[in-house]
Amino acid sequence: MLDLRNKGPRSWYSTCATPPVARSAREFAVANLFIKDGTLAQTIGRESKTLKTFAADPKNAIFSGAVVALVDNGTAGAAEIVASALLERNRGQVVGEKSFGRVTEQQLFYLARWRWSPAYDG
């Protein structure tokens, strides 16, 4: 049983035993402990174009039994990725309250011709 309740992004990283790797890789490393093969998650862009695919590595899986994950409205970040991956790969059940899908990947885009003007400052 995995207790993912009230595991936001900061609390999850401080309690999970994953090596210090890049943020996105760390999120999927935890799911990979329970999922041996296949896709863990994907980043989908405009027009449903797949931008990134995070695949499971069989040598990183440590548990092959049934998994039950407990979630609540405080479940966020990497904990949501783990719960979602368990459901998508039919590796177990997710039980509890609705989480609110706070897992997002954001990217900042600069507008080349945009300039701030005091006339627009309201």
Short key terms for the protein model shown above:
122 residues; alpha/beta; 2-enoyl-CoA Hydratase, Chain A, domain 1; three-stranded parallel beta sheet; two-stranded antiparallel ribbon; 3 helices; 5 strands; 23% helix; 20% strand; globular
List the helices and strands and how they pair.
Layout: E1 2-3, H1 9-15, H2 23-32, E2 39-44, E3 50-55, E4 67-71, H3 78-88, E5 92-96
Parallel strand pairs: 1-4, 4-5
Antiparallel strand pairs: 2-3
| Spatial extent as radius of gyration | 18 Å
The counted number of beta strands is 5
Low-confidence stretches: 11-23
Mean pLDDT: 76
Helix content: 10-25%
If classified by CATH, what would the architecture be? Alpha-Beta Complex
Q: What is the rounded distance between the termini?
A: 52 Å
Number of helices in the DSSP assignment = 3
Could you say which structural class the secondary elements and strand pairing correspond to?
alpha/beta
Shape: globular
**CATH topology heading:** 2-enoyl-CoA Hydratase, Chain A, domain 1
Beta content: 15-25%
**What is the name of the CATH superfamily?**
2-enoyl-CoA Hydratase, Chain A, domain 1
Strand order of the largest sheet: 1-4-5
Q: How would you describe the oligomerization state of the chains in this entry?
A: single chain
What's the level 1 CATH class? Alpha Beta
